[in-house]
Design a protein that fits this description.
The chain is α/β, with parallel strands linked by helices. The chain folds into two domains: 6-29 and 266-371, Alpha-Beta Complex (Aspartate Aminotransferase, domain 1); 32-263, Aspartate Aminotransferase, domain 2 (3-Layer(aba) Sandwich), CATH 3.40.640.10. Helix content is 39%, strand content 16%. The strands form three sheets. It has a seven-stranded mixed beta sheet, sandwiched between helices. The protein has a four-stranded antiparallel beta sheet with strand order 9-10-13-12, covered by helices on one side. The chain has a two-stranded parallel ribbon with strand order 1-11. β5, α7 (169-181) and β6 (185-189) form a beta-alpha-beta unit. It is globular, with a radius of gyration of 20 Å. Bound molecules: pyridoxal-5'-phosphate (PLP). Pyridoxal-5'-phosphate binds at residues 24, 83-85, 109, 157, 161, 189, 191, 215, 217, 223, 228.
Amino acid sequence: MVGPSAQNFDNLHKSEDMRWMGQNTNHLPAHPLVKEALLKGIHDQSYNLYAPPQGLEELREQVLRDLVGPNRSHGTQVLITDGAVEGLYLVCKRLSDENTTLVTTDPTWVWPLNFSRNEGANISRLPIYDKAKNYKLDPQELESQLSLNKKSIIYLIDPLNPLGSCYDLDELTRIAEVAKKYDAVVVHDCTYRDFAFEHFLMRDLYPEKTITTYSFSKWLGIAGLRTGAIIADEALFEHLVDDQPNILGSNILGQLAAIAAFKVKREWVDQVNLVQRRNQDIIKGAVDLLAGLNPVVYPSNGNFLAVDCVDSGVSANAIAEELLRRGIFVRTSDYHSDILKDVFLKISTTVPEEWADQFAEELPGVLEKCSTK
Ligand SMILES: Cc1ncc(COP(=O)(O)O)c(C=O)c1O
């Protein structure tokens, strides 16, 4: 495992005033309606019961409305999952075998790669850490790769954790054309969609072979309640749910929180983005004053900012370790890449303003300390 080991993570969890700025979790005060729904759920002991296998009907409908809108194609289905990651596990398990290649970017979010690899799939990671590529998957390189494969899954994270790049309609259309040509399935991981300035859906271009993954962890701030979803058209959906692991339903409190949150989603997301983009600005301001540190994609379309450390001559991991000693947890590129071992920091921004301010204040001293080591 990259990053802190399970044991270290356990210890970090015990620390009461850790600044969690590495996992893109949302630490802003919950909306009162969401808190109220959670408290009611506890009071009513709603958790005595299993939730319906595919999720609470009202929530499934809300996810569809949020993602697909009123003009949905017939047969679009939603499965509520224990976080997006469980949906990704199901997708990778059901669609991968030794004849499959899962194609993704480098850097990426690595866990689905493991899920597919464990089913015998090959993994192909196309390098995108390159300004000339705008830190995005290049359709031509994708095509070259797909032409070599018997059967392909494209794992497309958009906006991309860890860099914050996001595909415009033209770019997405070109990827869809390549996917169609080679009959590849696209797993469009939209975990960070609500932080993007503008976002488009692969399923609007290629519904028959797209699985969209959805998370409540980041925009809503309920990572610990493990609630997410996958969305697909009927044929693909039926194939997936045939082996559904959460057959007894998903976390009911998470679903109640999500139902309440949809009632105020627009105002809530606007407020969250106001704070997190302000935090991006503060972090960028601090980074700009330090020679050799450079934001990678700015502004980021995610609730995080990647900062390249190479020109500073200081190791990103050394900076992260020194920040951790000062109570600030951030991620480094080795968590996301096979080849970028010690290149960039990733700092999450859905945090109270004081946390971002503290990061900005500490950073010069941290860099100085690491430079003189
Ligand atoms: C790209 C990506 N997909 C999926 C997930 C998992 O989301 P969830 O918390 O809903 O399981 C994460 C979590 O960080 C992520 O970065």
